[in-house]
Amino acid sequence: MKFYNLVIKYRLPLAIGLLILAVVTNVYAGFWPAFLLYFIGVILLFGYFFFGPLRLIQEYMENGDLESAEKVLNSVRYPSLLYKPIRSVYYTLKGNIAMMKQDFDSAEKNMKKGLDLGMPMKEAEGASLLQMGMLAMQKSDMKQAESYIRQAIRKGLPDKENQAAAFLQLCSIMMTKREFRASKDFFRKAKALKPTTPQLVSQIKELEKYISRMPG
Fold it and tell me: Residue 81 gets which letter from DSSP?
């Protein structure tokens, strides 16, 4: 795995080096002795532009190393050449990192690009729509937030934590609209999922104080 990651990391200089070596071999020994060098060099070059280095990001994201993850993303010079599903993931990751850095305008711009390209999995599309809804809430655009979050639920979310987060956001939106019955319903759905994320647990405890006082 580490060897494969090293190949991905240095794919471009390896490709250039092999192609230069292939040309030299071609000149002095003929095409066929150089064929394998040409072949491997072209495959590496194709992989660099078509697949990019996104595989390297996983470990950084898991360790919370946003700076290194962002460096990998910034190393993609021609994102338009990436294979379409990978390009979608590229923009979604850029959006996620921008959101973590509270750069909401950049987050929205990149996540929209990712959604427009189509997500590889329905659950990933749902998660992106949920984040778009949260971004809209940051901007106090409750109508757009509700639309995105309802779409996220319809598309499907990857786990109970995301589902609970979606229901809690809708609960809050319904409270602002004074639709108390709907608010209570979404709160019950969120609570029934028994989320364990500290932020969600805290949010449920906080909302519970108000839910019991609501009419309807």
Answer: G
